[in-house]
Amino acid sequence: YLYQFDAATNNPAPGGGPVGALRGVCPAGWHVATDCEFQYVEHALGMTVAEQQAVGVRASGSVGTLMKSGGSSGFDMPLSGARRYNTGFINGGSEGHLWSTDCDTSAWPVGGCYKRILNVADGNITRIK
Description:
Blueprint: H1 5-9, H2 35-44, H3 49-53, E1 56-58, H4 63-67, E2 82-84, E3 88-90, E4 95-103, E5 113-119, E6 125-128
Antiparallel strand pairs: 1-6, 2-3, 4-5, 5-6
């Protein structure tokens, strides 16, 4: 499923509570990941610390490929596209967008949260805010 931030985290705006409170639609014992948690996964799959902390397209070799559906990491992210707040759904089947809970509430709702973008065409992981 695709969720808006408030539904996914059960908070009206990003940064609305501690990580434990950001369970939202997740099963008991799970929560929406922080940017740091995504960095742990990226590191475990072979990304350098410098790349983990970089913003933009990160040429991570095969780390993005390992995280996509069918990759060997077990993460299995489907490339379901994304929903822009003002224009609807985009890039279904060719990109996957994963938001984290690390947000700048002054930029809400247009942006301010770190997210990862995986693309069907390569093994890169884009990290933007």
